Structure prediction request, 779 residues.
Amino acid sequence: MAGPQINDARLSLEIRTKSVEQTLIPLVTQITTLVNHKERPRVTEKTTQALVRVGQAVCLAVERFVSVGQTIATENPEISADMCQACAEARNAGTSIQHLTSVDVTSHRNSQQFAEKTAMVRAARQLLSAVTKVLLLADKVIVKQLLISKNKVSNTLNELYSVNTFTDFVNCFSQFGNEMVELAHLTGDRQNDLKSDKHRAQMGAARAVLEKSTMMLLPSCKVCLRHPDCETAKQNREGVFKLMRGALGMIHHIVMDEGGGQANGNVSPVLNGDSGIGLDNSCSACKAFKEFEDQVEMIRMTGVTPSCKEKLTGALESLIETTQDFTDSAYTSHQHRESILMTGDRLKSEMSVLLRTCKNRRNSNNPSPEMETAILRTLTAAKSLNKQLQDTAMDQASELFKANEDHEILKRLRAAGASGDQQRVTEMTVKFEEHMQQLEEVCKLFRHIATNEQLVIAAEHNEFVLKSLGPLTLMSAQTLSQYPSSKIAQENLDMFADSWGTQINDLSIMVKEINDVCQGRGDKPVYLSLPRPGKHGTSSRGLRPVKLDAEEQAKIAKLGLEMKLITSEMDAETDKWEEPDNDIVKRAKNMSSMAFSMYLFTRGEGPLKTTQDLFIQAEYFSEEGSKLYKTVRDFSDKVPLCIHREELMTNLERIPACCQQLHSTLRTQTSGKTATFTKVDNAIQETKNLMNIIAKVVTTSFVCATKYNIDYRRSPGSSRRWRGPGEARSTASSDNESMYSSSMSDGLNKSSSSNKQFSASNTSLDRQPSGPNSEPLSH
Prediction:
């Protein structure tokens, strides 16, 4: 793909990323010092010599900076000319600054002061401009890399859409998984680097859609391949592909900053569409209240001019219009509806009094007591109406979650599908759709009362996902009702039902976050739940989670996503075996289940609640790997000498070393947050590496068994079962390990520094301070 155009108006000095901004701060500080020096009438010889050294240091730093820029220009021909020009400007400016600071050694006459100051300011502006251009051009390279990665995922997704055989699908899905991991890394960096809260929230929402859709992609495609004539299965798969394409398109728009209004930061309606995570241009109630209050406050200074009166009247009309979503809702109680209408009428009445009072105003400089009283009464009425809307939205959500219908509806839907009762599935579909409409209504009302753009996007994102995921869940149930004995169709319904439950959980957390902000109890949105705090084996004291910084979040979340994709590949490989009741498949699936539970831990979900649970699960994973090694070793004795046997033995002999490495990692004693995080990181990394080898071994074993017609059925008397952390024996661990409760956001919030090459230190963004006494860990 061709890189983005460089010579456009948007290569102005507008800085949209934190890394560029942070890289410029030290330079701005130094230059400010030099410019301020020129305003001093007298300086000592010692100060003058110090300034000379500063000028020399700036010049040397610019030279190092320019050399990196020229290297980037060589590696990226499309920006070479612009980069070289910007580097030359930076070098000239640096040389000028060095010369101007050197002049002070021999020149002390005041007649030169003004000219030197003017020259210094000019050189400083030139240097800042040139350095910023270099950084923005380097950022264009990062954008190009991200878009190339996005296009790879998009192209492979199209290939997945067109495959007709299971083998082709498995191969293509494996490639897709690797490309998705790369894209997750790059988009995570970009999300954390964006200055705009709105764009960061949009990127996070797009990445969350991609991650959830990837989990649903495998079973939905498997059902289509197994039942190619099933129309509902096709529609189910189509919906997943549509979700992913919409999210990829949204990522493209955010990265290229297309459709964004430069004046007010709003996103063009073109971004809404299928992605569902662009800001809705329709006015929210919170925004309408703010605009109305601003216009009322303006009257204190200007009085009621014709223009002011027109704006104030228009603001009130917009405000009242937003309340109609509350009064028109079928789920709003009669009491709340009447209260909203009554408070709205009171607001109109107070504004009429205000306009009459201001019309009689004589002194244009100071508001009269009557006018001040009218302003306060109008603002009080507006606040009362706003509070009434918040109470209405919260009561709707409370009633919805109190009823807790989701669990029961999904339970009956699953049962009806598994029994093949299509009529019962149809009946449950009607109830599910009614419940889905109520959930969407809650999202709409909470979008109105959300107080910042991140929360607005969270509400829109939840509404979009529920609206998209609901019909897909129903289609998966209808498919199962047509093929009640199909194991793959059952797995597909289970996946969509679990995803629906997870989304309901995300919605409840969003509702709490928005309500907390409205009540003044918080101001920062968190979109995913935290793991419940664990208890140490020797203590009954509950523990609070501790903040993970951005880089720690990135590491754990990245490994978790990679492991999730490997487990999906493993499941696809084991499903190819015609007779799954054999030692190899059973143990491989067992390990896949354990790895998946560890992946859920990185998201703050699943059965593993503390690091102690994670370590115990990893220990059983290692033991199961050793057992699989022995099973496949016996199987390999039946394989004749061939290239496939050589490949099998090569991968097989790596298993004991990996198991031993994982076992050694788990035996490591730790104390403190940093050491415990390192142990968690290493355990997940070693588990991922072992899982990757197991997937290759299972694939090669299947090839050998099929090609040479080898009997791979389960040996008599062998049995095994998955062991969870609750069944595990206690292992030695420090108190701090159990206190470490990790949770990831819906995406990979990695510390980004797209211009790391220019910075002497790593630009760590959104890092939470953690002192020696901050024990609990969380996102």
About this structure: The chain has five domains: 9-139, 144-271, 285-325+334-382, 397-518, 550-758. The chain has 22 helices and no strands.
